[in-house]
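Page 42, continued from yesterday. The earlier attempt failed because a stray header line got pasted into the input along with the sequence. Redoing it now with the clean sequence only.
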Amino acid sequence: MIIGKIEKNEKTIRFNEKIICNNCGKQVPGGLKTGESYFKTKSFKNELENFKKSYLCGICRDKQRLENNNQKLN
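This time it went through. Structure tokens are written below.
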């Protein structure tokens, strides 16, 4: 999954971060990547923290999406 900005022809940094679904508590597998110039900036740190605070796994995200669609139809 890509976090932040990756410029054209820029090296990418791959890293692992413990990301947990905020609904069910499952740990999400896989790593993240971002551009080398963006990696240790304050903006990157803020974006990563906000991402971790609001992350939903695929199952929980789909449940929420279905609930929202059903509410719109009623």
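Notes: The longest helix spans residues 58-73.
Reminder to self: strip header lines before submitting.
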